[in-house]
Amino acid sequence: MTDPLYEMLWDCAQCGAKGLLGVAHRHCPQCGAAQDPDKRYFPPPGQEVEARHHRYVGVDWACTWCESPNSAAAKFCVNCGGPKEGAAEVKRVTEVPAQPAPTEVPRPPLAAPSTRGPKQPSSSLRWLAVVAAVIVAVLTIVGYLFVSKHDETAQLVDKAWTREVDVERFTALTTSAWCDALPSDAYQVTRSREQRGTRQVPDGQDCQTVRVDMGDGSFSRRQECTPRYRDEPVYDTRCHYRVNRWQVLRTDKLAGHASLAPAWPQPLLAAAPGGGLGWSGGVAVLGAERLGSRREAYQVTLQSAKGKQWVCAVDATRWAALAEGKPVTLKVRGTGGAVCESMVQ
Ligand SMILES: [Zn+2]
Ligand SMILES: [Zn+2]
Fold it and tell me: How many angstroms is it from 27 CA to the middle of ligand 1?
């Protein structure tokens, strides 16, 4: 069983006859002009006419002498007798798949559509070009200011430091994780089914009819389908448990200026419940406290003769070497920021 073929339509350019049949009307029934294959088009949906008893033999060829379309089976042009040799196949029409009709935007009537119509896109393009040029110019200026530097002399008006120490406590945490990632020291474990993610499962297909120009005045129809998927929840076992971990309980902080030598805070650690040091056989007991990580930061404040200030972060050695109340030279960017590494005293 072969799929049925349908008639493409064409309009006669000579006499204006419309909706002529691609297979049945090789010449205009009204004026006799030869069919122009370039003018073939698909009929509106629902108005397809079957090309009965039409046998498909191949794409038409266009006569090199008179441009008439001829059946692939013909050796000579039916219109002028010209040979098939060297003739090219006629162009075929591709149908744009049906899409929801674009919403029409009501347009004010154009007084002179021939001048206003085509002008609009080019003027909006020009506008875009102007915007792009402005953006490039601004970026260039900012980039130049950022790169350009000049020397400044400033006074080192302040030196400041901070040092902090975390205090940690051995704590029983209540938490949960997927059971395949359950810590080995978890206890009081309970399990529950919970959604862990989704997976895509096939859920039918979306089909549409596509019309294919056979190139001989007829077209065929075929279904084109794409699979459809839907999300399906994936369940897994969730573990709810307790686990003992060192947690940051608080952070003790000390801060000062040049007058006070940097020092570390000395946090007081609470005694573990039941006295002792909070350790039993090398293992911490709940409620035990210990010192955690420590951090330090140093900075200097510079001030220009005009009153502009810059704050520079430095390391401990550098901070100790810099003297307060003495001038420094440094490089300053066009955008106003200090290049701290360039600081020299
Ligand atoms: Zn005609
Ligand atoms: Zn011909």
Answer: 8
Alpha-helical regions (H) of the chain: 113-147, 316-321
Say how far apart CA 27 and CA 67 lie, in whole Å: 12
Q: Is the pLDDT of residue 69 over 70?
A: yes
Residue partners of 306: CB distance under 8 A and separation at least 6: none
The domain locations on the chain are: 1-93, 150-162+297-344
Percent of the chain at pLDDT exceeding 90: 57
Residues 127-186 have pLDDT tens digits of: 999 999 999 999 998 888 888 888 889 999 999 999 999 999 999 999 999 999 999 999
How far, in Å, is the centroid of ligand 1 from the Cα of 44? 21
| Among the listed residues 180, 209, 224, the one whose alpha carbon sits nearest the alpha carbon of residue 48 | 209
Q: What is the pTM of this model?
A: 0.52
Q: Is the pLDDT confidence value at 97 over 70?
A: no
Ligand 2 ion: nearby residues, β-carbon < 5 Å: 63, 65-66, 68, 77, 79-80, 82
Q: Which residues surround ligand 1, an ion (CB under 5 A)?
A: 12, 14-15, 17, 28, 30-31, 33
Q: How far does the centroid of ligand 1 lie from the alpha carbon of residue 32, in Å?
A: 6
Distance of CA 76 from the midpoint of ligand 2 (Å): 8
DSSP state letter for 139 = H
Strand partners, 333: 149
Note the pLDDT tens digit of each residue in 13-31. Answer: 999 999 999 998 988 999 9
Tell me: the pLDDT tens digits for 283-330? 778 888 999 999 999 999 999 988 899 999 999 999 999 999 899 999
Residues 6+ apart with CB under 8 A from 116: 110
Sign of the C-alpha dihedral computed for residues 79, 82, 83 and 85 taken in this order: negative
| CA–CA dist 224, 208 (Å, integer) | 5
Domain 150-162+297-344 - what CATH class?
Answer: mainly beta
